[in-house]
Amino acid sequence: MTFTFSDRQRQILDEVRRAGQVSIESFAQIFGVSPQTIRRDVNELCAAGALRRVHGGVEMPQSENLLYSSRRTLNGVAKRKIGAAFAARIPSGASLSVSIGTSPEYAIGALEAQSDLMVLTNNLNIALSACEREGWTVRVPEGAVRAGDRDILGPQVEEFFARYQVDFGVFGVGGVAEDGTLLDFTEAEVAARMAILRNCRRSVLLLDRTKFGRPAHVRGGHMREVDEVICDGPLPAPIAADLAAAGVTVSITEDMQ
């Protein structure tokens, strides 16, 4: 099932992401509507997996990622800009290893001018759309498909990415810790992402600003280990300084024309 959120629901998500937990009464005052109206909004958000109910209010899910269909609709404008910035760096004839996640999906979708690409991915959403591009080669690993996310994880995925040395490795993350450590929701997600990082000539991390401080609990890698970061807005100052010292290229889409 695909969920489409209203503008108010997106604002509710943004406020909960910022505050951690917000009451129904607070939202009613913020938006000038009845508590019943807010309850309908948050009930839909909870049904989509975007929020979790607590006594008197809502909070972000603490241990699981949002449904893929829900993540597609979040921060779509930012992800499109990030995808366009990524696409500007990719020449025709390139090879790419691409991770799970919606930001990489936006990025591959933005490769409209490129021809003769080879795309290796464990993200079936990306694989299916890439198959429609004339002249592209698409390869996926074997294994069970994860329901809802439509991706493949496991040791065979790591072995799959390790069999190739591609021009570009592109991936997103579940979250970023205060010190720049990369976070995801399962060990298998981290292992697949790290396999991409190890087996590419240039690594590109795609993320929007909501990933900073977002709760995800499996550590794996650090932002300073990638070659380039593309984000929709400025990074936290300590992380930006760390990446500058490490020689990581940082591209901010709001600064681009």
TrEMBL record:
Record SUPFAM superfamilies: NagB/RpiA/CoA transferase-like, Winged helix' DNA-binding domain
Leader peptide range in chain numbering: none
KW Transferase (keyword) present: no
Alphabetical keyword list: DNA-binding, Repressor, Transcription, Transcription regulation
Source superkingdom: Bacteria
Positions of the HTH deoR-type domain: 5-60
Entry-linked InterPro entries: Carb_Metab_HTH_regulators, DeoR-like_C, DeoR_HTH, NagB/RpiA_transferase-like, Tscrpt_reg_HTH_DeoR_CS, WH-like_DNA-bd_sf, WH_DNA-bd_sf
Protein name listed in UniProt: Cro/CI family transcriptional regulator-like protein
